[in-house]
Write a structure and sequence with these properties.
Elements: E1 9-12, E2 34-40, E3 43-49, E4 61-62, E5 73-78, E6 84-88, H1 90-97, H2 108-119, E7 123-129, E8 135-139, E9 143-150, E10 154-159, E11 162-167, E12 170-175, H3 177-181, E13 198-204, E14 211-215, E15 217-224, E16 238-244, E17 247-252, H4 254-260, E18 278-282, H5 286-299, E19 302-306, H6 309-318, E20 323-327, H7 335-341, E21 352-356, H8 361-369, E22 374-377, H9 381-393
Parallel strand pairs: 8-17, 12-14, 18-19, 18-20, 20-21, 21-22
Antiparallel strand pairs: 1-2, 2-3, 4-5, 5-6, 7-8, 7-15, 9-13, 10-11, 11-12, 13-14, 16-17
Helix pairs in contact: 6-7
Length: 394
């Protein structure tokens, strides 16, 4: 089976299906087995499945709180028929199965390139179109849910120059991101217009906010690399832009949008709290590196960046920093290895925070053992700021 980076492929030994009854080993099979060939950190393994039902585009939702420590599942989704499906965490499967890839033989000259390509993280994103025709991208884990709403099922109101919508017995403060950013599209949205019966509302994954970002429609959902350009279009509240499938996509900073609209939840933090402090952000994924840099800059830090552990270590040997925020999975030297090397530099007392896409109790334990302060989700600004606030109080 052809394996594309980060994408499971299907291999079978026969075109005829054969289910394995409960309690039977794989050797029970006499006709065919279905194997999902998975790529994790540049290594492949086969995951045996009983059957292949279908493939479809989904919106990823975080695990419920009571399942956060589950090793083998990273998220959930609601399928078209209303049923709930768990999403497998391939890295967790490898860890749980105690798979050892150390016997793999790779030419040393190719190792770094292979590792860098494998560890560079794709992002699950939703592409949405504004009423003025702009296409915006939002990373799934920044979103609590997306609602496609029939216009006759909601009531819109304007109070004190603020927009509100009553829907499903809940009142939402509604915002139009293109208006907040001060950006206008071509004025020719391809769908829907004023005569359309539906529109789209994105509810952010920010506790304490009952806000909906308003769009005309969902353009697509996909997994993609995001190579942000922070210079072609600049606006307060915009991470940057990227070219995805031929489209120019704008990536808004949701937290900053709500600040600009003056509807963020109360916080004790202000930019002056970290003014004059210097932070180093380490991440091999450009999009996540820019996101973390933006959050720390907004908090008042002066921020420098490094694209992997080795580059960061060289900086740490020669320059003092007040904080290091590093990704876990990186080529050549990962975040855990970097944390263990920092005591040998001039930044021996510098606190280190790790970021990762999915957190488990085991990962938090490994981070603490490596000398880190803790671990936070890659795009969760408030978890990061709350950890900084806790460190400051201590």
């Amino acid at each position: 089976a052809q394996l594309q980076d980060g994408t499971p492929s299907l291999a079978t030994s026969s075109t005829k299906r054969s289910r394995r009854p409960p309690g039977h080993s794989i050797s029970y099979y006499s006709q065919a087995i279905y194997v999902m060939v998975i790529n994790v950190s540049g290594n492949t393994f086969g995951l045996v499945v009983d059957d292949v039902l279908d493939s479809e585009e989904i919106v990823v939702k975080p695990l419920p709180s009571y399942a956060k420590d589950t090793t083998c599942f990273s998220a959930v989704t609601i399928l078209g028929d209303g049923s709930v499906a768990s999403i497998i965490d391939y890295s967790g499967i490898v860890e749980k199965a105690k798979i050892n890839f150390s016997s793999l033989e790779l030419a040393s000259s190719d190792l770094e390139e292979v590792a860098r390509a494998a560890l560079r993280e794709k992002q699950n994103i939703i592409l949405l179109e504004t009423q003025s025709g702009l296409v915006m991208g939002i990373v799934n884990n920044m979103v609590s849910r997306v609602e496609v709403i029939q216009k006759d099922k909601c009531r819109m109101e304007n109070i004190n120059n603020q927009s509100y919508m009553h829907y499903n017995n809940v009142t939402f403060h509604t915002l139009y991101p293109d208006q907040i950013l001060g950006l206008e599209g071509n004025g020719l949205p391809s769908a829907p217009d004023a005569e359309e019966e539906t529109f789209c509302m994105v509810v952010p994954a920010i506790s304490g906010l009952q806000v909906g970002l308003m769009f005309s429609r969902i353009v697509d959902t996909m997994e993609a690399y995001i190579d942000l350009d922070c210079h072609v279009i600049q606006a307060d509240g915009l991470f940057g832009t990227a070219r995805i499938d031929g489209r120019l996509v704008l990536f808004p900073d949701l937290n900053r949008l709500f600040q600009l609209a003056d509807i963020m939840p109360a916080t004790t933090e202000s930019p002056e709290d970290y003014d004059g402090l210097k932070a180093l952000v380490v991440d091999d994924t450009p999009f996540l590196r820019i996101v973390t840099t933006t959050y720390l800059s907004q908090a008042g830090f002066s921020v420098e960046q490094a694209e992997d552990g080795l580059a960061a270590l060289q900086r740490l040997k020669n320059h003092p920093y007040d904080l290091v925020v590093t990704d876990i999975n990186m080529p050549t030297m990962d975040g855990l290895e970097l944390a263990k090397e920092i005591p040998g530099t001039m930044n021996v007392d510098t606190p280190v925070i790790s970021t990762t896409s999915f957190i488990s109790s085991d990962l938090v334990t490994r981070c603490v053992r490596a000398g880190m302060v803790g671990c936070v989700p890659s795009t969760d600004k408030f978890r990061l700021l709350n950890m900084l606030a806790t460190m400051k109080r201590v």
